[in-house]
């Protein structure tokens, strides 16, 4: 058998290469792409605004936020929760009122049937055959049933669609990145040591903005960083492992450190596969069957 080229479309079989080619050109099937470095957040940028932080704070899980942005987020979420809670309470009161109305209607119907039975018992005479025929009538418009049946052409008698039952909302505000409970008291304010540049540039325009508070190494996405909770200083993980963990003392203010006082900053990718974050994006679209 002769060897065929990849672009040969004369065969009877729909090859894998043809599928991949058609997926790229036509836009169906599973679309996969690798995100470049320009699409990744920098380590010193807020997870909400994606801009360098003016007043940075970090969560216990190591996610960085601008204090103003995270406070606005928490206030917005609390307003949403309060609104959902009001809707839930309104629905609960409505359900309680409906139950009371049903109980009253049931009592009224029981009393009415009892009075009817008593009246029929006292008024029983030789005309029982007529009463039995009227009761056994198959017509659904007899005995006042014409007022009970709904009419789809009369708006007041049309069936109503009930709203879905709401569940009681969770009053806890969660971190938008880690999904864990977020409390304002747990946010740790941090201080980046700015690199003094001879040329006057804005902070956003600089490629190298900050340095380690101990070793003065330039900080970037490719260098893992950590925050010392006692002083709020940002240092490299290499500095933590080689210098700080030997005596567990904060070199900035001399305070004792514990393992919980060292918060490792979450960083973005660098474009290399060895970084801690996956840089592959995948979208599933309708598939054409061969």
Short description:
The chain has 290 residues and is of the alpha+beta class. The chain is 30% helix and 11% strand. It contains four helices and ten strands; from the N terminus they run H-E-E-E-H-H-E-E-E-E-E-H-E-E.
Structural description of this entry:
The chain is an alpha+beta fold and 290 residues long. The chain is built from 4 helices and 10 strands, in the order H-E-E-E-H-H-E-E-E-E-E-H-E-E. It has helices at 16-26, 67-122, 128-135, 237-247; strands at residues 30-34, 56-58, 64-66, 188-189, 193-194, 210-211, 225-228, 233-236, 262-264, 280-284. The strands form 4 sheets. The protein has a 3-stranded antiparallel β-sheet with strand order 3-2-4. The chain starts with 15 loop residues before the first helix and ends in a 6-residue tail after the last strand. The model has no long low-confidence stretch (mean pLDDT 79).
How much helicity do the residues have? 25-40%
- The portion of residues forming beta strands comes to 5-15%
Q: Which stretches are poorly predicted, pLDDT < 50 over at least 5 residues?
A: none
- Name the helix and strand elements from N-terminus to C-terminus, one letter apiece: HEEEHHEEEEEHEE
Q: Kindly provide the radius of gyration, computed on alpha-carbon positions and rounded to a whole number of angstroms.
A: 36 Å
> Which word captures the global form?
flat
Question: Helix/strand-derived class?
Answer: alpha+beta
Count of individual helical segments: 4
Compute the average pLDDT: 79
Q: What composes the largest sheet?
A: 3 strands, antiparallel
Distance between the termini: 24 Å
Number of strands: 10
Q: Widest sheet: strand order? A: 3-2-4
